[in-house]
Fold this protein.
Amino acid sequence: MSVVAVLKGGRSLERQVSLQSGARVEDALERLGHEVHGIDVDHDLVRRLRELAPDVAFVALHGRDGEDGTVQELLEVLGIPYTGSGVSACVRASDKVLAKHEMRDAGIPTPDSLSFNETAFKELGAADALGAIEERLGFPLVVKPADQGSALGIKFAAAAAEVPAALVAAFSYSTKVLLERHVAGHDLAVSVLDGVALPIVEAVPVDGQAYDFTARYTIGRTDFVCPADLPDDVTARAQELAVRTHELLGCRGFSRVDLMRDHATGELWVLEVNAIPGLTDTSLLPQAADAAGIGFDELVGRILALAG
């Protein structure tokens, strides 16, 4: 039996999702026989961890502070082993712009994109270059905050007139935004556990709606197909790309890689990597594990065993 601190909640915009993930993890760890202490992360985190002196921390924090390397750095300073990826991998995966540059340099297919911070628009006149940007990327465009998860702040711009409002929305979530060529197709998620790709999950929002924050976390808003109904060669290619991307960014233990399969060409495009994927009732990693014959308790136990 281990003393496990489950870090959850926090102050990010994904707080509620994190609380759900953390609660499920706590229940599973208790069933596995561990002494479990849930910690809603706040200003007293270091004090509470020092008082508890856990054997390991299970990181169920999503969004800023949980996925960007912040809490991982603190845990390393305190000498507490923790689940999931290390500091550098979290930094790279949480910054969509940095991750895309890494993927491009490694030859991993990812949609063409450009990124700008607020300074570029406020002080360097980037708005005057929007015409050239739009001509390079084409329409529709996806405008997203560079460091948010769960589809928060993502807007689609079908024409030039819609870009300014999409930028304003994205900048309300982050100081840096990504403008990305939109790929119309199938939303695919490949979870990687201990270096092995699990069965692919396809997310199909009901009534053709966008796979946004609400669709991700509201039961009944999205149908999930797992294993995804794909040709064998496409499945193998998607899983290979996921493992390559997981390893490229230095992820440890587990991750989830999101891809799109182009309706028109069948090509696969890697969008991003989630270093701390959700573990809620509607999250994709547990669904993929279940399709591989790994129940939720076993999944949590394996993640814990991979802590470093």
In short: The CA atoms of residues 56 and 81 lie 5 Å apart. The mean pLDDT is 88.
